[in-house]
Amino acid sequence: MSKNKEMNQFVRDSILSGYRHHSFSVERELSDFYLKGHGDSSLENILHLDTYAEILASDRIRALKNTLICLITVISRSSIRNGADSEISFSMSDFFINEVEKQKSEEDLQILLKEILKRFRELVDETQHQKNPYPVAKAIQYINAHLYGSCTVEGTAGFTGCNPKYLAALFRRELGLSPREYIRREKMKKALTLLVHDRLSVNETADILGYCNASHFIKEFKRFYGKTPRKYIS
Question: Where, if anywhere, are coiled coils annotated (predicted)?
């Protein structure tokens, strides 16, 4: 039987069995209600692991794991909708999906469910009380996305919502260097990749990385690596 026929048969059997899923709107409303701090800590009793335990896999533990992964998807996106940084929320989602795979029993998965709900609620709560809960992380996110082209301290600070001087202080405290130094370091690491692995010319590399001209790029490269690009890769 083809996969398409298998899928259609599965859908028909599921509908005819009388089995019903939570509607998307119900899952969304419940998760939003909980994340905004209105619900109590028993959301897992509403969106609990037994909901899809008989349908998401033939093995019960595997089905429970799949159920929890689906719930993580719902709750992480609800967190973003309620103001959480998308990269942080998605990274937490990735972490917890990996944690799901480590669990061995239903009890372990139920404990993990409570931990997941707690951490995402804390993320949303922190976001609602602070404009930027992770300014350095947000700054790094911005810098990584703008290495190809112009990337300024002012633009980075604007993305985080922080004053440039305040952001610089946070960078020095957490990374031991200023935002400007961090941008230079990351651009130089990218430059080496472009020159050595992608075999681009100095002019091409300078242009891609947003330098006004090749001369300025060469000067920055020599300051960072101690040699000009040509001597470094020869």
Answer: none
